[in-house]
User: What shape does this take?
Amino acid sequence: MKFLFKPKSIAVIGASAKPGKIGYEIMDNILSYGFKGELYPINLKEIEILGKKCYKSVADVPGEIDLAVISIPAKYVPAVFEGCGKKGVKSAAIVTSGFGEVGDHETENRLVEIAEKYNMPFIGPNIFGIVYAPNNINASFGPADVKPGKLAFITQSGALGIALMGWTITNKIGLSSIVSIGNKAQIGESELLENFLKDDPNTKAILLYVEGLIDGRQSMKTFKEVGLKKPIIALKSGRSKRGAAAAASHTGSLAGADNIYSAAFKQSGVLRAIDASEAFDWARCITNNPRPKGKNAVIITNGGGVGVMATDACEDNDLDLYNDQEKLKELFFKPEIMPPFGSTKNPVDITGGGGELAYKKAIEAAYNAKEIHSIVVLYCQTATTNPDLLADYIIEVVKKNGGKKPFVIANIGGEAVETMIDKLNENDISAYDLPEKAISSLSALYRWSEFIDRNEKQGKTKPLKLPIPQIKAIIDNIRKEGRIQMLEHESKQIFKLIGLNVPPFALAQTVDEAQKFAQEVGYPVVMKIVSEDIIHKSDAGGVVVGPKNAREVDEAFNKILTNAKNYKADANIRGVFISHMVPKATEVIVGVTRDPTFGPVVMFGLGGIFVEIMKDVVFRVAPFPKEEARHMINEIKSKPMLYGARGTKPADIDALVDTIYIISQLVSQVDDIKELDINPLFALEKGASAVDARITLTEKSYPSN
Ligand code: ACO
Assistant: This one.
C-alpha cells in the first residue's frame, strides 16, 4: 500500500488541459502541492498538460508507474485498468463514479478481479482521490492547500470529505493524509488502517467517516488492534432510521442498527463523535497531546462563570478535578499568579485582573506539579490582557512542556480571541471557543487512554467450556420436526445445560403427572400450555399463575387444555409446563439478536417500562470479557434499581454479570441461535433466575464451532 501513499511516479489517466474538469484539477493539485516525482498525464489528444508531456496510454509511458489516478468515463475504466495491470502499475485510485453505487456491481467486481490478477491494489471507485502530506501528495480534486499535520482522515463520502477538507484548512487542523474510499470495492478502512496507517509514523490519530461497515467483526478486530496504538475517532452517519436508509442507498452499504454500531465502536476503543465539529475538536486534542499519566485535571481561569461551566462539563464527561486543597494552595496561591482574593479551589481562579504573566506562571506551576496530570486553561477576554501576547506566552510554555501532559484551552471573546485561537491552533495547541468543547475533547483523550488500560487488564477472552454436543442434540431434534421456534421447556433445558439458574420445571401430560411435578418443583406453581401452534399463550387462556395445592393444579390443568382446544382445535398440544413460581423480584432482560454486520449482539436492560418506554438498554457484540458484562450493567440509567434504590435490597450483580457473560458465550459458540430472550430474568438478592425464555433458531443449520 506504500505505493498509494508514497508514489515516486503518478499517471493521471483522463488528465485534461481544461480548467474546471476533474482531470485538470487533479493534475493541478499534484503539481501545486509540490510532488517531487515523475508525473505522466494520459490523454488521447493533448501533447502537453500543465507543462508535462502527455501519453496516449500507460503503455507508452517510458518509466514505471507507482500510482495511476483514473478519471475517465465508467465504460472505459475496465479496459484501461487492465492496461494498467499489463503495464505493471503498482497501485490505483479510481475516481470515476457509476459502478456499485448505481447498481453495477458486475463491473465493480471485474475491477477487483483485475486488481487481484495483477496484484495492483486500488481505492475507489467513486472517490475524490488521496492526499499524503508528508510526501507532498495531493492526488485529489479537493482543495489544494491541505495543512500538514498528524491526523489521517478516511472518508466514505466523497462530497462530505471534500467539504471537510476545506473546513480543516479554515480551522487550522493539520492532516497527514486524506483517503476517499467511496465504494470500497477492494480497499476499505480496515485495510488502510492495518496495512499502512497503523505503522505510519506521520499519523498520530485517525478520523473515520463511515456510513456502514461491510464486515463488522473484522473491522472491530482491526479497530482494536490499531486503537491500542493510536486513537481512532468515528463519525458514523445514519443514526436515524431514515438516515440509515439514505446511507444504504448512497454507497450501496448496509447500515446496521445504530446502537449496535455504538456498542461495536465502544468495545473496539473507537471514539464515536456526534458530528463533524465534535470529531475534529477531539482530533485536535488527541493529535496534539500525549497520553495522560493520571486522572487529575486542573482548570486555570480568569472568570468564575466559565470555571463553573467547565466544572459541569467535567462532571458530564467523568473527568476528575484534582482536589488536594493544601497542594493546590501551595502551587497557585502566589502573588505572581493571583491576588489575595483569588481562589485555588480548582478551578484555580486568577481573577479578572489576571494578566498574561499570571497565566504563564500558573500554567508553568501546573506543568511542574507531578500531582496534576492534565491542564485546562480558560480565558475570558478582558481589557487587562492582550490576547495576542497571551497566545505567545502560551505557545512558549506549551512548546517547552507539551510532551509532559495534555493541555487544552478555551478562549471566549470577540475578534481578537478568534485570531488568538487560530494562532494557537496553527502552533498545534488545542484551542477552542467554548469550555465544553475543550473538556469534551480532553475527555475523549482520556477515554482512549482508559480503553488501553482496560484492555491490558481484561486480557484475551477465553471461550467458556459449554456442553455443545448436548445443546446441538436438542437443536437437532427441533429441526427434525421442521421447527425453528423452541418451546419453553426446550429453551430452559439449554439454560440448565449452560449453568443458568432456572426455576425447577417439568412437562406434564396428565393431571396425575401435573400434581406429582407440582409437588416436586414446589408450590406455588406456574402452569402454561406447551404447543408450537400457540405462541401467545396468555391470549389463548393457556397460562395459570399461582396454584398452591393438588386440587388447584387439577383445575388449572383442565382449564388450560380446554382453553387451548377452544383457541385452536387442531393445535398440537405437547402437555402443560409446570414450574415453581419465583417470588417477585426486580425484572431485567437479557436478549440476543444476530446483526447482519456484527453477528450475535447481546442486550441488557431493566424489564417492564424501562425497556419498553425508556428504551434503557445497552448492547455488546459477543463474545466479550466478563468485565464488559459488568460495564453493561453500570451503563443503564436505571442501574440504581439494581443497587438498592429507595430501600429495596441490592440485587446480586455478580449473578447478573455471569448470566450475561454465559449467554454471550452460548450465542458465540452456537451459530444456530438467531434470537434469544430471557424476559424476565429475576435479579434476586442472591442469584438470578431465568423465569421466561424464548429461543429462535436460524433458518439454516450450522455445524458446531
Ligand atoms: N485514455 C486517455 N484519456 C481519455 C480516455 C482514455 N481511455 N478516455 C477519455 N479520456 C480523456 C478525455 O478525452 C478527456 O480529456 P479532454 O478534457 O482533453 O477531452 C478526459 O479524459 C476526461 O474524459 P471525459 O470524457 O471528458 O470525462 P469527464 O471528465 O467529463 O468525466 C469523470 C470523467 C470525471 C471520471 C466522470 O465520469 C465521473 O465519474 N465523475 C464523477 C466523479 C466523482 O464525483 N467521484 C466521486 C467522489 S467525489 C464527490 O462525490 C464529490
